[in-house]
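During the first year of the project, the team set up a workflow for recording each protein of interest as an amino acid sequence followed immediately by a discrete structure-token representation. This format lets reviewers and collaborators read both layers of information side by side without switching files. As required by the reporting guidelines, we include two representative entries from the current panel. The first entry is reproduced here exactly as it appears in our internal archive.
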Amino acid sequence: MQKALAAVFTGHGDPFRLEEFPIPAPGTGETLVKITCSTICGSDMHTWHGRRQEPTPCVLGHEIVGTIAAFGPGSPRLDLRGEPLTEGDRITWTLAASCGECFFCKRGLPQKCEHLFKYGHSAIAPGREFSGGFAEYCLLTAGTGIIKLRAELSDALAAPANCAVATVAAATRISGNLEGQIVSVLGCGVLGLAACAMASEQGAAAIIACDVDPFREATARRFGATHFHTPDTLREGIATTSHGRGADISIELSGANTAVSAAIDNLRIGGTAVIAGAAAPCGCISLDPQMLVRRMVSIHGLHNYAPNDLVSAVGFLEQIQGKFPFSDLAGENFALTRIDEAFSSSGKRPGVRTAITP
């Protein structure tokens, strides 16, 4: 039986274990993909550093691009845009597979499916070793949303679409129409920069970016930010831009509890905050319920995204080719056999996506 390589993660502090496993034949509803590129997400770094726990041993990685190697019986032959799928097509896919029939799926929360399977977040098992991006193959389970990629979108740009950019697409969807709005974006990593660009494309009146690193201002402005502040000047900056009213929309993408507080505190009456960065423990915040009542603010938590958000993310990246410097967010490229080096490099270069290619 033919075999392929996977990088197995066994726990914080352990080097990745490069192992060969039999390449599986896809079962009912499944699709086998030969991976061409995976990028290291912030959540992968949290797991590698021990800040969050995943079942082990596992194959990390969920920002993935690959080509269809084989279809299983009954596997989807149309992608999320209704385009036909054939062997050899270059694709990406939703970071999770959902059943479509459970309590949460029927209530518009497929990312919280009661039978959810997340790529790069599950322990490997015999025959199910290829379940993450840091490997030569990935076996897509039934219920995965697939999208075919057009030639003009490179692997390095397309890989983060199925996590970072799709999450931002979900955040802007939840926020509502951004046209003419004052939008604050807290955190100027890959997600925050994508949020600035999306808000710009949607016609926001002002985009106020905030980051603890003042050297990120130039990059934020290249991605559409009209203003930039560090946390100590954010309140004054939003007040000046909004004539004292506050931001219409706040999108928190940093993961810091101080940023969560700032996203809520600096809203105008009737404003909306979307909190998406705090996917790992970051401590509690203080919240006065009277503020919620008297200021009539809305607070939405966001974790992952729905399949249509991936469609929006890929479409956005296709449409803005050359308008925003997304190619600058691509970090170094490492072979799968150098995965330990890749993670070390990624940890030293926040704000870019390090790529791993089999």
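The second entry, processed by the same pipeline in the following quarter, appears below.
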Amino acid sequence: MYPPDTTRSPVTRRALLGSTVAVAAGLVGASGTAAASQSPAATVVSQNAYLGFDIVELLGAESLAEVRTITGGFLGDIEPELYAARADAIAESAATADADVVALQEAVLLRRGQSGADGSESGDVVVDLLDGIRTALAERGLDYTVAAESVANDIELPAETDDGPATLRITDRDVVLVRSDLDTADPVAGTYDAALELPIPESDRTLPITRGYSAVTVTVGGIDVGVVSTHLESASPRYRHRQAGDLLDALPETGPVVVCGDFNSAPGEAAYDRLTRSLTDPHAELRPDATGATCCQAKNLQNDESLLDRRIDAMLYRGGVRPMAIRRVGHRPDDRISVEVDGETVRVWPSDHAGVVGSFELSATASSTVTPSRAQSSPATVPDNVTTTLPPDSNATGASGPGFGARSALVGLGMGLGAWLRRRTR
């Protein structure tokens, strides 16, 4: 039997969340039962939805032609049916939890651009995970508003396909969805000032790989609460630690706040420890003996037995918030979904990360406000005069799975190469 887990999620700039949902909705605390409460309560789900696209192979490319071939292979291997099924599974977890707020990381948009003979391009959406999740929720009679959305990375890669030259554009988003019957205010979206500058091969240029956050104020039972969705750097512990500091600096000094996300840092590691000096981890309170691992399944999601071995996804809080229950979702073998692809049935996990569900009792305090850090650019561009290089710890351990949280810090380098090559061929 799988015990209920307690994991957390990070908050970036400002996030406010709230709801009047009762807590006795099947969430389990340390005692194994949920306590009823007369105060307003909010249920929050946090989920890294998973890019589902591994570009690390680009690092072995020795020429532009090889880069195009590899990226073209990636494009050919993308199965929209798999993304749709995974989006449906993520929506089902949120619906089952009766979530007031859903914090998403890696809610990616994948687009294919086709180059014409005259140099013009057309763009087609291949996958939109955010739209897929919202559609699946709507099919269940649930209406969630995109209350806050940030774009962390927006990168183009060159590709050679059976139909000729093309591009793959990857837009990485951190999102806060809120039940449409709840009032929201002051949405914030941005990126952290601490961003890796990845050197681009055969060039003196670098490409910034940014991490972002989104946050919004939600009113629950007359109480404003901040909820944030964020994704910290996977490649470098040093940059991850700096981003944790940026996050703490941006949070309000007063008022209830719930921080959700993929921190890429487990208990005992620097970024997590920095965050939990100011924020409280419900897992430590409610399920101190449970490992609650959230990362990571195989990159193709087809492993039979769970490979989760690190708790890097979580919910942290401070202010007028009392955790009632905390648990994981999408981590059991029975949570895998069957999908028909090209006449073959495959079973996949909803994501390479487990999701986290938390229920919180709210108390009236001063409202929370988050301060944005810096503006975003879309798509990402290569600065003309950049001298920053990778930090010494960029190849350190402690990264997550494929996607924008890769086991290897070099995944970002592949993206930098692709973006640079794409621009060189325009």
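For the second entry, the following points were noted during internal review. Confidence is low (pLDDT under 50) at residues 1-35, 375-392, 394-398, 406-426. Helices lie at 64-77, 80-97, 129-139, 237-250, 270-275, 282-286, 410-424. Both points are flagged for discussion at the upcoming steering committee meeting.
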